[in-house]
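JOB MANIFEST
job_type = single_chain_structure
chain_count = 1
residues = 346
[input]
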Amino acid sequence: MPHRPVRLAQTNGVFAMNGKTGRIAVLGANGRLGREAVKAFHEAGWQVRAVTRKGNGTFPPGVEQAAADASNEAQLIAATHGADFIFNGLNPLYPTWQRDVMVLAKNVIAAAHANDAVHLFPGNVYNYGTTLPSVLSEETPERPDHKKARLRVEAERYFAEAADQFDAQTIVIRAGDFFGGEGRGSWFDLIITSPLKRGKATYPGPRNLVHAWAYLPDFARAFVSIAENARGLSKFERFNFGGHNITGDELVAALEAATGQKLKVSGFPWPLLRLGGIFYPMWREVAEMSYLWREPHAMNGERLETVTGPLHHTPLVQAFRQSLQNLDLPVAAEPRHPQAIPSMAS
């Protein structure tokens, strides 16, 4: 594919500093990943515009704010005007994916094309389907055998087509399950650590299997690094973020080190969730993803770091401690025997 250089923003006649920073519009800036992206790009010296539905939120001083309904193409184009990059932090609820995913994908590409901006997209492991192999790389075949996987594949296929047809560049970084950052909405906080104050934890699958995790502050910084190194990349690129690839036993051991207490661990009532899915659409949608806890999978992030250089992977116990503090959950004064819990970043 032909290469497409990154365009630099110009403000008051001065181009962005040293060709590595510029203007970025963060969509879904009030969301969990969106907030981390705003923070990461702002701390790296970028001019950041936080785009939310109502144009309000609590962001660092100097962050510009804009309002847009992402389902409205014209509003999204206007809200991202002048951006060099668009970070796509839009994430509709599972029950509305069929209606919203492709609408949002097409509107974001329209905004990127209209503003000559590079589109940054956080991907996930759904594309690989229910028979995903134990190690996932950029060369792993996609087998979209469920509806959420098919929608993700369709969206990324559209991004690739837009890159060729409209010269709208997209860079995808795929990651495992999220944890950390502010707010709630992941397996880590809603299920695994929810009973922590009672000295308990819940684990949704066999504890001897590897599961891929992404600490959101590290994941957001990875997008900063790829944006700073985007010059010379192809018009459509996909990378994997290594993050933390750990078994359930390793996760529990790290939680115990972070909290300073021995935890009683129980399983997750999948049959009850499936039964409840008859009446609650969200339960049904979540139950469809249970295979991710039965199939061991790790993310190979080596190719990403050949472009960005070594990325920062917060040690696991430290990442858990910060995540628990954000959730107002108890942590130990100091981690117990942190050397016994490997980082498992890859």
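[summary]
Confidence is low (pLDDT under 50) at residues 1-19, 338-346.
Residues 147-166 form the longest helix (20 residues).
exit_status = 0
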